[in-house]
Amino acid sequence: MKKTITINLGGVVFSIDEDAYELLKEYLDKIEGHFSDEGERQDIMSDIESRIAELFSDGQNSGNRPVTLKDVEKVIEIMGEPVDIADSAENSGDGQSQSSSSAGRKNRRIYRDTDNRVLGGVCSGMATYWSIDVIWIRIIFVILAIMALSGFLVYLLLWLVIPPAVTTAQKLEMRGEPVNISNIGRAVKDEFNNVRKNLKI
Description:
This protein is mainly α. It has helices at about 20-30, 40-60, 70-80, 85-90, 95-105, 120-130, 135-145, 150-160, 170-175, 180-200, and strands spanning about 5-10, 10-15. Helix 2 packs antiparallel against helix 10 (about 180-200).
């Protein structure tokens, strides 16, 4: 007989075996120890916990089954070890970008890119998804809107149907990058640096 614990991970409640909980807690503590900036740490940990919760939810096809040690080990394998954070910071050149682009192309999803939007982010999201310059997508929609209202109606429909990329994990999926701890950490740090630059101007 195993003892189970109820936890809240990324806003989702899970039952988890005690040994699995200990491994998960140790893993999250190691990740948290890699980030010195308090603001960055909170955002990064929140995104990582949300991603882990998503992976646990995907793996629980049988409903009320508790999260097991095997589930946690599988998530750690997908997310990567905390030492990968330091390795990715050192190797942030061409090698990392090539491996991320080749490994993540299969996992690419379409989202509205609200960071680079003019209206709803539909065009910038489509451009990111297809890896083309956003200006071409915008020109197509403008031509369609001028020739007939169909361009405007299609844009509105896509705005309603395509979800926005809100979390760091969704932004990584939109770009086709693997959603692991090193990429989440890098993306949040880049976001913080951009905010700091904009505040200095």
